[in-house]
Design brief:
Blueprint lengths: L22 H12 L2 H14 L4 H10 L3 H21 L2
Helix pairs in contact: 1-2, 2-3, 3-4
Length: about 90
Amino acid sequence: MSEQPIQLSAGRLPETVIATYDENAVVALSEALSAPEGERKALVARVAAMWPRYLDAWVALGQLSTETIERYAYFRVGYHRGLDTLRASG
């Protein structure tokens, strides 16, 4: 059981603030998506591996995939990384 007290505010839900993405991750994904088609998916996968909580990279991997199960897997990982981000943010 957690030793931290629960903070409740009268009349409204507590605010959740999600930090902005690392600028290096944003630039890396932009460059990966600008790469030639044959290299794009591998470069985006590197971005996702380097910044696993960068949700846009998981979305891009899902969109670049052609296999149904593979697309599902990338989107599912992105969903769980999003949950991790929410939990860590409040």
